[in-house]
Design a protein that fits this description.
Blueprint: E1 6-12, H1 16-27, E2 34-41, H2 47-52, E3 61-66, H3 71-80, E4 86-90, E5 94-96, H4 100-107, E6 114-122, H5 130-146, E7 165-169, H6 170-175, H7 187-197, E8 201-212, H8 218-238
Parallel strand pairs: 1-2, 1-4, 2-3, 6-8
Antiparallel strand pairs: 4-7, 5-8, 6-7
C-alpha cells in the first residue's frame, strides 16, 4: 500500500448520511494516496457505526469520537492524528469533484508556505426555496469576485478563507496554533486574519472544486447569520488589535 501523501480532515456533528456521501466521493478521486480522518464531534446519530459497517476500498480511515466542542475543536483534533505534511479540510456536506485532491497535491510543491483555497459550488435546481436561491446567489457572487485571482495570490488586504474546502501544510497550521476553539463560528475568518498577520499567502485554486450539498432553510440561514455576528463581536473582545479594522464591527449591532 502506498503511504499517504496527504491527510484529509472531516469534522462532523450528526451528519451520518453526509459523511457517507463524502467518503464515497473520495473513493472516486483521481489521486488516492491519502488518509482520511473523520472527527465525530459529539455525534449521536450512529455515524461511526454506519462508517464501520461499510466496505471501503481505499485509504486508511480513522474515526475519532469526542464530546461536542464545535468545528474548530474537531478540526484541531483531526490534525493531531494526521501523519502527513499536507492537510486538506472538507466539511461533511461537501462532495469534491474527482480531481479536487489532485489539484491540491499538485499545487503544494510549488507553494508549500501558503494556503490554497478551493472553489465551492452550491448545487441548485428549479425546485429550490427562495432562501436557497438567495444563498446560491451569494455563493455565485463570492466565486465571481474571487475569479479575478484564479490560480493567483489573493491580495493581502482581502481576508478570506472557507474551511469547508482548503489545504495547508501541517507546519503552517501548527504555526498558527490551529483554529480558535473558543469560537463556535467565524473560526475560518479568524484563522485567515491570523494568517495575514504572519504574512502567509492565500491562493485561489478554483480548479479544486467541491460541491456543497445540504438542506437549507430560512431558519438555518437566520441562526447561522446570528451566530456569525455574535462570534465576530466575541472574537473582537478577545483580540481587539486583530479585529480593530473589521468592516462589519464598525457598525453597532444588537445581538440577542
Amino acid at each position: 500500500m502506498t503511504p499517504p501523501h496527504v491527510s484529509i480532515i472531516v469534522p462532523s456533528y450528526n451528519g451520518k448520511d453526509k459523511v457517507i456521501r463524502l467518503l464515497h466521493s473520495l473513493e472516486q478521486q483521481t489521486f488516492l494516496a491519502f488518509e482520511v480522518i473523520v472527527i465525530l464531534d459529539g455525534s449521536t446519530d450512529g455515524t461511526a457505526e454506519a462508517i464501520n459497517c461499510t466496505e471501503w476500498n481505499i485509504f486508511p480511515l480513522k474515526i475519532i469520537e469526542q464530546k461536542n466542542n464545535g468545528r474548530a475543536s474537531a478540526r484541531n483534533t483531526g490534525v493531531t492524528y494526521a501523519t502527513t505534511e499536507l492537510l486538506i479540510f472538507f466539511d461533511d456536506d461537501m462532495v469534491p469533484e474527482v480531481s479536487c485532491i489532485q489539484k491540491f497535491v499538485s499545487f503544494n510543491p510549488l507553494y508549500k508556505n501558503s494556503i490554497a483555497l478551493g472553489q465551492i459550488i452550491e448545487t441548485a435546481s428549479k425546485e429550490d426555496t427562495e432562501i436557497k436561491k438567495y444563498k446560491d446567489y451569494l455563493n455565485t457572487s463570492w466565486n465571481n469576485n474571487l475569479s479575478a485571482y484564479r490560480d493567483n495570490m489573493i491580495p493581502n488586504n482581502i481576508v478570506v478563507l472557507a474551511a469547508a474546502n482548503f489545504s495547508i501544510s501541517t507546519f503552517l497550521f501548527n504555526k498558527l496554533n490551529g483554529f480558535d476553539e473558543l469560537l463556535k463560528d467565524i473560526e475560518d475568518y479568524d484563522f485567515a486574519l491570523r494568517a495575514k498577520v504572519e504574512k502567509i499567502e492565500t491562493f485561489y485554486l478554483d480548479t479544486a472544486i467541491a460541491l456543497h450539498q445540504d438542506h437549507f432553510t430560512f431558519r438555518k440561514y437566520a441562526e447561522r447569520s446570528k451566530a456569525y455576528l455574535k462570534n465576530r463581536i466575541f472574537a473582537a473582545s478577545l483580540k481587539p488589535e486583530l479585529y480593530g479594522k473589521d468592516p462589519i464591527l464598525k457598525h453597532k449591532h444588537n445581538v440577542l
